[in-house]
Design goal:
This protein is α/β, with parallel strands linked by helices and 358 residues long. It has one domain (3-354). It is built from 14 helices and 6 strands. It has helices at 3-19, 25-45, 58-65, 70-88, 100-106, 114-127, 143-169, 185-192, 204-227, 256-265, 267-273, 286-294, 311-324, 327-354, and strands spanning 51-56, 94-98, 135-137, 246-247, 252-253, 277-282. It has a 4-stranded parallel sheet with strand order 3-2-1-6. It has a two-stranded antiparallel sheet with strand order 4-5. Strand 4 (246-247) and strand 5 (252-253) form a beta hairpin. Helix 1 runs antiparallel to helix 4, helix 1 packs across helix 14 (327-354) and helix 5 (100-106) crosses helix 7 (143-169). It is globular and about 70 Å long. It starts with a helix and ends with a helix.
């Protein structure tokens, strides 16, 4: 361990053993697990080249806002702990990206003026001051652009609330008694869910995916209840279908930030397009974490068109993909491994200092 690494190791243990004082061994061990989970998310995304941008979900922002609550503070400290890894054991330049949905939730889900947008952004930045990272806007560069994006988001939120509410009111049972073959529920949903949505902010593909998976479960459950027929479908409900629900008390659609996070932080989609940066969704919510994990599978595809001037080059590229697969991606992760191991050693060292006899 170099002098700098040893200093980072000791500083980390000093900082977090002090901040975790008073928590039980079980709680601190849970903190260790949370920190490691955030590092593993970072590790997987590191297969893609470029600067890294951490995109928090709204629940983490709330953890920073309500740090006086012990459970929330423990999650906040896990997020800050991960931050120390990204800044004190640096391999890749890492920043925070704040999305318009975070600001929209922060101001109480309403449209704002440019001054209101600036004030809200400053407020969120102040909440995240412990992170010691440069903060960037996700999809906006100026406060006027942020105001405009929030206005679009607000219109979409009203539209989507009505859309998801109407889906909940619909009877999805299908009478397929006597059908000569098993009916696939997602195929029925695909026929019934609209293909176009007049959205200004949200990605229509993810909105339709959420609606499709919600409809699939409703079709399966209601057809079974009404007609006693089992349709073909997944054994358990998709994590994505659980993200968006109507809050009856407030008549709002929950999970707007989750939809936004999925659309920006899909590792697979970013891998296909490689726009020069990597956006990593950071969450402690189990459903959202699983939904993000589904979108983390990397896919490479090559095809060869014979009779073309570059057929030989296509064949060479196809052969390289078959033989070496994700060689470059694996090399990026391997480069990160020593820093990860050194950091996790510091995380465990924090636990050992607090509970030497456990």
């Amino acid at each position: 361990m170099s002098h700098d690494e040893d200093a980072a190791h000791q500083n980390f243990i000093d900082e977090f053993s002090a901040q975790l004082e008073g928590y039980s061994a079980k709680e601190v061990w849970g903190w260790c697990i949370k920190v490691r989970a955030l590092v593993m998310q970072y590790e997987f995304a590191a297969k893609i080249p470029g600067d890294m941008y951490i995109v928090h979900d709204n629940s983490i922002i709330q953890d920073f806002k309500h740090r006086e609550q012990p459970d929330r503070n423990l999650r906040r400290l896990a997020s800050v702990g991960f931050n120390r890894f990204a800044t004190e054991w640096p391999v890749r330049s890492t920043h925070i990206a704040v999305s318009p949905t975070i600001i929209y939730e922060h101001v109480g889900r309403r449209a704002v003026t440019s001054v209101g947008a600036r004030t809200a952004l400053d407020s969120v930045s102040e909440l995240l001051r412990d992170q010691s990272m440069q903060i960037h806007g996700l999809g906006f560069d100026t406060t006027e652009e942020l105001r405009s994006r929030i206005a679009d988001l607000h219109d979409d939120a009203m539209y989507l609330t009505d859309l998801f509410s109407s889906q909940d009111r619909k009877n999805w049972a299908v009478d397929v008694r006597g059908a000569p073959y098993k009916i696939i529920a997602i195929s029925v949903a695909d026929d019934l869910v609209p293909g176009y949505f007049p959205l200004k902010y949200f990605d229509p593909w993810y909105v339709r995916l959420a609606l499709l998976l919600r409809a699939e479960r409703k079709i399966i459950d209601q057809t079974k209840a009404e007609y006693g027929v089992d349709l073909l479908g997944p054994d358990k409900e998709s994590e994505i279908s659980k993200l968006n629900e109507i809050c009856r008390k407030r008549n709002i659609l929950t999970g707007l930030g989750d939809l936004d996070l999925l659309s920006h932080c899909s590792v697979n989609s970013q891998y296909q397009h490689q726009l020069g940066g990597v956006f990593i969704g950071q969450t402690f919510d189990g459903n959202l974490r699983e939904a993000l994990a589904v979108r983390q599978r990397l896919v490479k595809s090559n095809h060869v068109m014979f009779g073309q001037p570059d057929t030989e080059a296509q064949l060479a590229q196809f052969t390289e993909t078959m033989l070496y697969g994700f060689r470059d991606e694996q090399a990026r992760v391997a480069h990160l491994q020593p820093s990860i191991q050194a950091f996790l050693h510091a995380v465990l060292g924090t636990f050992d200092r607090l509970f030497p006899s456990v």
